[in-house]
Amino acid sequence: MSTQDTTKYYDEKYFSEQKSVGMANANNIIQWFEPHVSDNDVVLDFGCGGGYVLSALVCRIRHGFDVNQIALEQAKKQGLLTHSDLSEIESESLDVVISNSAIEHTPTPYEDICKLRSKLKPGGKIIFRVPHETIGWSYAQGDWNYHLFTWSPMALGNLFHAAGFSDISVVVDKELTPSFFQFIRNRFLRGFIGKAYRLLRMAADEMNVRRIGVDGYCVIVAKR
Question: CATH number for the domain including 167?
């Protein structure tokens, strides 16, 4: 399968359905990237969508890569320098590469990660947050997400190690949340509701009442 075969899924309809999710998620997931980004950094968001996550980070220059041209138009409005081809980005020009829920969509994850490594300055960091799908998520034609891969923490770490990265750490974000979760501000309450909701969903999945699909995320941090 070529990249052209997959990009046809990421059109205006896809972006319009993802837009509200991206905007709502930006504040919830920025915590994974913020500690690794300084105000003088040049940062690339791989699979930037509308640019909502990167625009919320304080840095010097913001680059966004995506295959969805509609998303890139929105990302430009957020102040990102946009790219639809990684070759447009100079080698060893980036301090940090971030990505949220993107690498599972590409048919060439290893090759793309190798390319991203070449764009990083020596000692530069890469931080990816990747969804983990459960074994119970049965195949159904016409899946909206159209994920091509999923990884365990071990497999994700191995992938980045094979691509030449070092100082690799992988943590698990088990948070599985209901739709109203974004409106809860109390940290303790968020933690309690998140865990309780995840347990209920796991029980429903085990009893074949409702499939979870994605039961959490792997977050990898590595250096060139």
Answer: 3.40.50.150
d(CA 51, CA 78): 6
Model pTM? 0.84
Would you say residue 77 lies in a domain?
yes
**What are the backbone dihedrals phi and psi of residue 18, each rounded to the nearest 5 degrees, phi first?**
-85, -20
Greatest distance between any 2 Cα atoms in the chain: 51
Calpha distance 54→94 (Å, rounded):
14
Report angle CA 45, 48, 53 to the nearest 5 degrees: 80
How many angstroms separate the first and last alpha carbons of the chain? 29
As given in the structure block, the two tokens for residue 72 are: 């890139």
Give the pLDDT confidence of 84-122 residue by residue, as tens digits. 999 999 999 999 999 999 999 999 999 999 999 999 999
- The mean of the pLDDT values for the chain is 87
